[in-house]
Amino acid sequence: MRTIGALGVFAVCAMLASPPARADWVPPFKGNDTGGIIAYELATTADARQLAVDHCARYGKVVKFLAVEPHYGGYLSFACRWVPYGANELPLRTLY
């Protein structure tokens, strides 16, 4: 019985000594063919509109901005939509 108690104490100490759980790191700009998010800090320092337009133009779509959370840790979200009816050409992708 003493060995089981000693192993239990050892297991509890090992669990307490392990590092705490961490949240995953999210890049300041993340998206796919349906849309994406831009960190608010990046949106205040860079041209967020042009970043989103370039991203959606890679997929042949146009950008529609959805929401902004204007505080530390907030995001600017956007959706990539198909080119509206009546447009004769695909969106331009700007290269610098």
Give a structural overview:
This protein is α+β, with helices and mostly antiparallel strands and 96 residues long. Helices cover 33% and strands 26% of the residues. The protein has helices at 2-17, 40-45, 48-57, and strands spanning 29-32, 35-39, 61-68, 75-82. The protein has a four-stranded antiparallel β-sheet with strand order 1-2-4-3. A hairpin with a 6-residue loop joins strand 3 and strand 4 (75-82). It is elongated, with a radius of gyration of 24 Å.
How would you briefly describe this protein structure?
33% of the residues lie in helices and 26% in strands. With 96 residues, the chain is an alpha+beta fold. The protein is elongated and about 80 Å long.
List the helices and strands and how they pair.
Elements: H1 2-17, E1 29-32, E2 35-39, H2 40-45, H3 48-57, E3 61-68, E4 75-82
Antiparallel strand pairs: 1-2, 2-4, 3-4
Keywords:
single chain; 96 residues; alpha+beta; four-stranded antiparallel beta sheet; 33% helix; elongated
Radius of gyration: 24 Å
Give the oligomer, counting copies of the same chain as homo and different chains as hetero: single chain
* Beta-strand fraction estimate: 25-35%
What is the element string, with H for helices and E for strands?
HEEHHEE
* Class computed from helices, strands and strand pairing: alpha+beta
What topology, given as strand order, has the largest sheet?
1-2-4-3
- Show unreliable segments: none
- How many DSSP E strands? 4
Largest sheet: 4 strands, antiparallel
